[in-house]
Write a structure and sequence with these properties.
The protein has 246 residues and is an all-alpha fold. It has eleven helices and no strands. Helix 3 (39-66) runs parallel beside helix 7, helix 7 (123-138) runs antiparallel to helix 11 (205-233) and helix 9 packs antiparallel against helix 10 (180-201). The longest helix has 29 residues, at 205-233. The radius of gyration is 18 Å and the shape is globular.
Length: 246
């Protein structure tokens, strides 16, 4: 890219990346939403996706430590609370994103200690998620923030996921999908800040291209996780050593 884009054109280019590369287009994702997976395959998805959910607060903490503006730190800190939850009076049940995801794996009949240990996740899952955490830890702050903009596309995929899974799987209930409802309001809030930051701070053509590449990278991280699941758990299935075996 050689020409500097207007903020509006930059946003349009970011949204076009999502239209072409977001993981709602992946065949595994389509099968999940359309009711074409077995209970075991849904379990494999939930087990592996837990690693992504659990590492998001670590990713955000790495970025938080690099922000020098207290106002920015306060805004970004809310993401960690959204996933980790906050301090609660003794006896109250934690309701952060990670705790809600464990309700899903519990409801699918997976052992909670095994899920939390992450012993059974696929190598492809681990490498993709760790690559994302390291990207945010080491790349310029502008690119790290831009990589979060896959959240622009998440409300639509969440609505589709919840309605499709409830319609097609008798082992799924609204309670087991409790993770997703708060994300319908959390994600747009996060996007509003991140998108405004990127529009304001990508001031050169080189910075704008870096922002676009950061979003392409993040879409690739999400896509690679589904590639690993499809290879391991869809017929005929090639489950690597050490990964969860039903």
């Amino acid at each position: 890219m050689t020409a500097l884009l207007s903020p509006e054109a930059l946003e349009a280019a970011l949204r076009q990346i999502g239209a072409e590369r977001y993981h709602n287009l992946h065949p595994f994702h389509r099968a999940l939403h359309d009711g074409r997976l077995t209970r075991v395959q849904v379990q494999a998805w939930a087990l592996n996706r837990y690693y992504y959910q659990a590492r998001i607060p670590a990713k955000d903490a790495f970025l938080l430590a690099r922000l020098e503006d207290p106002a920015l730190r306060r805004l970004w800190r809310s993401r960690i609370v959204d996933h980790d939850g906050d301090l609660l009076p003794e006896g109250e049940e934690q309701n952060g994103g990670i705790a809600r995801w464990l309700k899903l794996t519990d409801g699918l009949g997976l052992d909670r200690d095994y899920v939390v240990s992450t012993r059974g996740i696929l190598p492809g899952t681990r490498h993709a998620v760790d690559a994302y955490v390291n990207f945010v830890r080491h790349r310029p702050i502008l690119e790290a923030i831009a990589s979060s903009l896959t959240e622009m596309f998440s409300p639509n995929i969440i609505s589709e996921r919840v309605s499709g899974m409830l319609r097609h799987y008798d082992f799924i209930t609204p309670e087991t999908l409790a993770y997703f409802t708060p994300r319908l309001t959390q994600a747009p809030k996060d996007v509003e800040f991140a998108l405004d930051y990127v529009r304001q701070h990508a001031r050169t053509a080189e910075q704008q291209e870096a922002v676009l590449e950061a979003l392409r990278f993040k879409c690739g991280v999400l896509w690679a996780q589904l590639d690993a699941l499809a290879y391991a758990y869809l017929s005929p299935g090639h489950i690597p050593p050490g990964a969860w075996r039903p």
